[in-house]
Specification:
Pfam families: DUF3857 (PF12969)
Protein name: Tetratricopeptide repeat protein
Radius of gyration: 38 Å
Helix content: 25-40%
Organism: Croceibacterium atlanticum
Largest sheet: 9 strands, mixed
InterPro entries: DUF3857 (IPR024618), Papain-like_cys_pep_sf (IPR038765), TPR-like_helical_dom_sf (IPR011990), TPR_rpt (IPR019734), Ycf3 (IPR050498)
CATH class of one domain: Mainly Beta
Keywords: Repeat, TPR repeat
Oligomer: single chain
Structural class: alpha+beta
Length: 925
């Protein structure tokens, strides 16, 4: 709806020269120059019936005529377009309302006939964005508008700009499909013989040029054909929406010469005045011209707040340096004027230049006009080197002063005029961000880890941190640091932090220590992790596969550079850690500089990694060559792989010395914020993972006291069951059920009740449950287990067979049948075959290998059982039931020592296995 609503209103261009202007809308007919449109006879089809945009260029003035008509098809559109808005700049022109009409059943209702007027909203509409643009906005809630009506609005905005003498400029965007309108056009007109140039950019259409009643007109019917899709990495000029431009400037030199007097600094620094004193102080403190220029730039950046002041002709006209210094605020024009005055007072060669911050590479293709630019900065030449100094930026220092903003071109404002100049990129002299992080994995790679991190930021990135120090509340600082660390490292808990700002280097440092979940991933029993490194993010694979894309250059991000230093403290493992990927990189690909040095030694991994993106673009031929180099270079990912026998969370759990730093970290979090419930949850998870079940239960007791919930009751029920407190575990499972009756809560009860001699209750509870197809199958197989426990082994098997008959060959049900027959020792004939079929169809998954091992155990095929259990544990070392059964099998094979060791280790991890397997007649002792 927003898009449709926007077609009913127009916006005044911030451009033109002195004229009589009004602070109230004028209600009058359209000028005679307007080629008035009539509504199409057929009003069905697209809801936008009329989209008419006409401009008249006269000496010193631009008139913009807007005529819109839209059909109100539904209540949403009624809300979106029922309030009209039109903006204008009262110090530069007028808003002239011609028509507000409602067309209903073929008749036109004149909304203005009864004296209805617009209300005026004044200048402060964008104050929250630090903008006073001088604009007024006229608004009107259209009375009597209904769904089914056609609403039509016509008005003209006149614009003259005090800064441009008698020159005029006009830019009109040209909508392309899928935009739809029954009748649409853009038309620009000027008196015959007037020195007006026009240009169409980005559109493959031939405008109609006509001469009538003393006017020359260029007209384009809309919408234009849908634009060809462009690569996302194409320069902006290839992706820019089509525009029709017209103006009276004959060259960039004329634009330059007309605007240059606005930035004359002669006489603006009063001898002995405030600015003069600042200049003297800088000259006394610094010897070299460059050091003085940086000091002046930093003064303007730091001491002058940003506020766009577009009032009283100020869209192009800067306020004086004295006014800027007195008010201590100003926009880019004001900051540039102040900086220029100071630099020139110091004898430094400097001039203002206008730039386009987002569309710089488009400027050379545009018609010469000030509207091509949106920003002004200072160009200084010191010892033969060009410097581009932006007073609205931040972080000025000797380390970053040579950096060139990604504006592509600039137009110097010189009294004699100047052509566009290239802002050529050059290598950065400092990193935008230097990151140092130490990850402490010594407790084990499958546990949370402690980290210490320090980020040093330079240039504009340092500005926000300087603003926080000494001004933000403790709560605001903590929120910022938490978000900063999460953005850089992922979710974590901050233990301590510090923000520092170095006034000498103008850099900011964020220092944080904390605890975070393990980033290690497990695959087939082995752990590995990747690292977020500057080089790892490098990718150069521009898509130029389409014929129309072959000659499109590739835009390179930047300028931006980053350096990361990583240290990983590793567990004292028997095996060796391995690095996969390039340990050393020193390459320049597609103008991006990539460097890395990594190595493993003395239980530590160290990585020093950097990437520098220079910005700019590559020609199509260069891009093709660099893409080939990038393919040969391959991936810059770096992976650290742990040995297969790496120290695990459950190894030597009775000796908690290696867990002490993590335990202390969680305790610190709780002491610092005892009301934060998540801290207790995290410590409970950590304690449970390291087999401190009693400690975990204590933490969950606190969580339940603070905020009882079904999930936490189920967590505590599971832990209570492991420590043998079955009655308490059942009570928690029932409490969870009462809070939130769920399948999980039902299973939790059904898993405990049989051990208390209440198998029938468990069966009855599960028979009451519903769920989706998967949940119903799980319920059925669980009931079959309970039926076998109750002595009805054949009945339980028949239940599984019934499901399998409806899902023949289903690996899940084949595994359920294999497991059931093996554990309950039912129908040994064909057991090996059905278990093997389950393994093959389940792609040799560890749980299914465990089931077949149970089958081989029942059949006395111990060697086959051991082979399957070894394979299952190799792929999934956490599979404690498999470890238990391997102990049983080894014991049966005569290797009692190894068997007992496996059984003890399995029961340490999961004590409930003893009673679980005992129900099948498999005893731990």
């Amino acid at each position: 709806m927003k898009r449709i609503a926007s077609f009913l209103v127009g916006s005044a261009l911030v451009c033109s020269a002195p004229a009589l202007a009004g602070e109230e809308p004028i209600y009058a007919p359209a000028g005679g120059w307007v080629d008035k449109a009539t509504l199409p006879a057929e009003t069905s089809g697209p809801p936008i019936l009329l989209f008419d945009d006409q401009r008249l260029i006269e000496v010193g003035q631009l008139s913009s005529y807007i005529d819109r008509a839209i059909r109100i098809d539904n209540p949403q559109m009624l809300s979106a377009v029922g309030t009209l808005q039109a903006a204008w700049l009262p110090d530069k022109g007028d808003l002239i309302i011609h028509r507000i009409a409602i067309i209903r059943d073929g008749e036109e209702i004149d909304v203005l006939a009864d004296g209805t007027k617009f209300e005026i909203l004044r200048r402060e509409r964008q104050l929250e964005q630090r903008m006073l643009d001088g604009s007024y906005t006229a608004t009107l809630a259209v009375p009597g508008l209904r769904v089914g009506d056609i609403l039509r609005l016509s008005y003209t905005v006149t614009l003259s700009d005090q800064a441009l003498d008698e020159e005029v400029q006009a830019v009109a965007p040209l909508p392309s499909k899928p935009f739809e309108a029954q009748q649409a056009r853009v038309r620009m007109s000027w008196p015959d013989g007037a020195p007006v140039e026009w240009r169409l950019t980005g559109g493959d259409v031939q405008p109609e040029v006509t001469r009538h009643d003393g006017l020359t007109s260029v007209e384009i019917g809309l919408p234009l054909d849908e634009r060809d899709e462009m690569p996302v990495d194409a320069p902006v000029r290839y992706r820019m929406a089509p525009m029709l431009m017209a103006g009276t400037f004959d060259s960039w030199e004329e634009v330059s010469s007309i605007m240059a007097p606005l930035y004359s600094t002669e006489g603006t620094v009063k001898p002995g005045g405030a600015i003069s004193q600042q200049v003297s102080a800088i000259e006394a403190a610094h010897d070299g011209k460059l050091e003085r220029a940086v000091a002046a730039l930093r003064l303007v950046q730091d001491e002058i707040a940003y506020l766009l002041n577009g009032m009283d002709g100020g869209n192009y006209i800067p306020q004086s340096p004295a006014e800027t210094w007195a008010k201590r605020f100003g926009d880019c024009k004001a900051k540039t004027m102040l900086l220029l005055a100071m630099l020139r007072e110091m004898g430094i060669e400097a001039e203002p230049v206008v730039v386009a911050t987002q569309t710089g590479d488009v400027v050379p293709e545009m018609l010469p006009m000030p509207a091509a630019f949106d920003h002004v900065i200072v160009h200084a030449v010191i010892d033969g080197t060009d410097y581009w100094l932006d007073g609205t930026s931040s972080g000025a220092s000797m380390a970053v002063v040579e950096e060139v903003p990604a504006f592509h071109v600039a137009l110097p404002l010189r009294e004699g005029g100047a052509a566009l100049v290239e802002m050529a990129q050059r290598p950065q002299q400092a990193f935008d961000s230097v990151n140092r992080v130490t990850f402490d994995n010594r407790a084990g790679v499958d546990l949370p880890l402690l980290y210490d991190a320090e980020w040093t930021l330079s240039g504009p990135a340092a500005g926000p941190i300087r603003g926080l120090i000494g001004q933000a509340s403790e709560e605001q600082l903590n929120k910022y640091i938490t978000g900063f660390a999460a953005n850089r490292l992922g979710e974590n808990r901050v233990l301590s932090s510090e923000l520092r700002f170095n006034e000498d280097s103008n850099t900011a440092t964020v220092k944080v220590s904390g605890v975070m979940d393990s980033p290690w991933q497990w695959e087939r029993g082995r752990a590995s992790r990747l690292f977020s490194l500057p080089t790892a993010g490098f990718k150069f694979s521009p898509d130029r596969s389409r014929a129309i894309w072959r000659d499109i250059p590739v835009a390179i991000p930047g300028p931006y550079s980053e350096r990361t230093e990583v240290t990983v403290l590793l567990p004292e493992d028997a095996g060796a850690y391995e690095l996969e990927g390039a340990e050393s990189i020193d390459e320049e690909i597609a103008t991006v500089r990539l460097k890395r040095e990594a190595g493993l030694a003395d239980g530590e991994l160290t990585i020093i990694d950097s990437a520098a993106y220079p910005g700019g673009e590559l020609s199509p031929e260069a891009a093709r060559q660099e893409r080939s180099r990038a393919v040969r270079f391959g991936s810059a990912e770096l992976r650290l792989r742990a040995p297969r026998d790496t120290l695990r969370r459950y190894d030597s759990a009775d000796n908690r010395e290696r867990f002490a730093p993590l335990e202390a970290a969680y305790t610190t979090l709780i002491e610092d914020d005892p009301d934060e419930i998540e801290n207790y949850r995290m410590r409970a998870r950590f304690r449970a993972a390291t087999l401190d079940r009693e400690g975990a239960i204590d933490d969950l007791d606190t969580v339940i006291e603070m905020e009882p919930g079904a999930s936490v009751y189920l967590q505590r029920a599971q832990l209570l069951s492991e420590v043998g407190e079955l009655e308490a575990a059942l009570a928690d499972a029932q409490a969870a059920w009462e809070l939130y009756p769920s399948i999980d809560a039902a299973f939790a009860q059904a898993n405990i009740l049989p051990y208390l001699g209440r198998v029938d209750e468990a069966i009855a509870l599960l028979e009451e449950q519903g769920g989706d197809a998967q949940e119903r199958r799980t319920i059925a197989t669980t009931i079959s287990e309970l039926e076998a426990w109750a002595g009805n082994k054949q009945q339980g098997l028949e239940r599984i067979d019934e499901i399998l008959a409806t899902r023949p060959g289903d690996p899940e049900m084949l595994n359920a049948k294999c497991w059931y027959q093996a554990t309950w020792n039912v129908q040994p004939d064909g057991l090996a075959e059905i278990c093997t079929e389950a393994v093959e169809k389940a792609d040799w998954s560890p749980p299914v290998l465990d089931s077949r091992a149970m089958g081989y155990y029942r059949l006395g095929r111990y060697q086959d059982a051991l082979r399957d259990l070894d394979a299952a544990l190799s792929a999934s070392p956490d599979q404690s039931p498999s470890l238990f059964m391997r102990g049983i099998v080894r014991r049966e094979m005569g290797d009692r020592k190894a068997g007992e060791a496996d059984i003890r280790a399995a029961l340490a991890r999961q004590p409930s296995l003893e009673r679980f397997f005992a129900r099948f007649g498999i005893e731990a002792d």
